[in-house]
Amino acid sequence: MTSERKSPIGPIIEGFIGSLLILFGSFGVGWLVSVSPIARHPWIIPLRTESEGVIVSTVALTLGCWVMFRAWLRLGRRLRGQDPADQWPEGSLRTVNLAAILWCAPQLFVIPIFSRDVFAYLNQGRLVLAGQDPYTTGVSTLDNWFHLGTDIVWAESETPYGPLFLWLEAATMRVSGDNPDLAIFLFRLACVGGVAMIMYYVPKLARLHGVDGARAQWITVANPLLIISFISSVHNDAIMVGFALAGIWAAAHGRGVLAVLLVVVSIGIKPITMVLLPFIGLLWAGPGSSWVRKFQYWFYTAGLAGMILLVVGLLQGYGFGWLAVLAGTGTGSTFWSPIGIVNGWLATLLGNLGIEYFWTLDTLKLVARVSSVIVVLYLMFRGSDDRIVKRMTWAFTALVVLSPIIQPWYLLWLLPLFAVTGIRRNWEFKWVVFTVAFFLAFGAMDQLSIYQFLEMEQQMVALSLAVSWICLAIMATVDPGTRWVVWTGWDLPRARLSLPWKRAATPVEPPLTTAEHHQIPAGEQEERSQGVR
């Protein structure tokens, strides 16, 4: 940073204003069930039933996302120092936490946006209370399931959630009764608890890896995509990630039994975090362990986790039904997933050649699943003991990236782990920024609740997209507070092109002497010895 550091108050206030804009916009185009009394408030009715109200709400919601996004980038710019080790000034963590809390506060009262999954929670809880098995039965067996806002894709679909979350769904519906707004608020409070756990453990895990805790917190918890996806959208992934981080922290401090218990809770919310267990076993075994000890602690980890989940399954009566759901890869693919991209190219090519391509997606799914298992096994057995969490992160990444369906909030499973193990200021951070921007733009236009009689859905999608493009163009070109993300600090590896027969003539740099090595700055020493963290 070349200019004098300024006060972070401006970005904090700006982010709060953006959050309020999202709150206002959600009343007009957020997902609101037809039986909700909120829909009958006099000032809500014109926002949802008149074209002017829908237009204003769409613009407010979309603009609010980009105001928060800009505030997030400006806050990091204000706080970061010139230290090459990315150590932020003292007190930065308190500032980031304050910003995150203020930006999250209005989202407690937002009408659900970006996703309708929370409405599936309502009916799945009703399924449990009705004595049915959500791992074999869709919500369409319930009376009035559609009136509670659940998307029709859940009508015949089994729940992909873990057994502990079924208990939470049932308890929430028992308490809320016939009040869906209360149920949504209770689910949101549970998600806020998950975000609080993330906020607590991210700085601790970052310091454990020699990473600045304030910067890791800023990248993760102050991130507008996390705030919207975990609180506004009420995704149970917040709880899953919170307990996973707690388990990793416990394992890193040798508290293996507690670590397994915490990760099992995470698995009980969404089973995908099963991939963490082998690495929890490695952390429990400790650095420098022999292979005999590693296998011993893998056995302890798997045995303890399996026993707990077996008891839960017996108490519920569903057994390990969630495993059968986990084994499926789902139907279809998202167009931005690597599987979806390759399948699109392959299907187009075969179609142009007049060859049947109905088999391509299933084949690619199988190849990707086998590949992800191979990557996980490789990282279990290969790698330095002081990089176990990094190995865990890449194993988790392989499962996500090689999945045919990648939802926007899946990034948030991985972001805390990458943040605590080190995301550099160069292209690595820019990759995070561009991914967040893409999913904010997509979410704002893709999930708008507009009454059909208005016949405005496509127009509002176009309007939201136009607002996003205008905001992005301004921030990338003329806005001094954000254009640096695009135009400076890429620090890409240099590509040297030379003729093959001339490469041998290139002088080879001799190894440094001990005295010369100690004259190099500490940050560069680490880069030379370890490469990218």
- Name the helix and strand elements from N-terminus to C-terminus, one letter apiece: HHHHHHHHHHHHHHHHHHHHHHH
Percent of residues in β-strands: under 5%
The overall pLDDT, averaged over residues, is: 88
Q: Which runs of at least 5 residues are low in confidence (pLDDT < 50)?
A: 499-533
- Report on the biggest sheet: none
**Gyration radius, to the nearest Å?**
25 Å
Shape summary: globular
Structural class assignment: mainly alpha
Number of strands: 0
Count of individual helical segments: 23
Provide the helix percentage.
55-70%
Distance between the termini: 22 Å
Oligomer: single chain
Keywords, separated by commas or semicolons:
globular; mainly alpha; single chain; membrane; MptA/B-like; 533 residues
Which helices and strands occur, and which strands form pairs?
Elements: H1 9-29, H2 45-49, H3 51-79, H4 92-104, H5 117-129, H6 163-176, H7 180-208, H8 213-220, H9 224-232, H10 237-252, H11 256-269, H12 277-285, H13 291-316, H14 321-327, H15 338-352, H16 360-381, H17 388-401, H18 411-421, H19 427-446, H20 457-477, H21 484-487, H22 514-519, H23 522-530
